[in-house]
Amino acid sequence: MMFSVCLASFIFIMTSSFSGMLISGTHTVIGALLGAGMVSCGIDTLNWSKLGKIILSWVVSPATAALISFSLMIFVAKFTMDTNRFTFRQRILFLQSI
Asked: Considering the chain, what is the average pLDDT of its residues?
């Protein structure tokens, strides 16, 4: 079964790449696993709660990364930029002159 998953993923990724489509490798592998599971064991035997967790992680991960990077940017900006003395425009112009 694993060979089928790898082969299907490889064919789909290569075909998509050659045609210029943007795809995700993890989405492709999960789709291939679902397809192989449906063919070999049937739809009723699949663990749908695990699939729900995987899909939820695809949404939660980027949102969490965005919040963490935003917090870090605010933290770094607060301690490295002299916001009391210079306006935002002055700081940007100063950085461009460097």
From this structure: 86
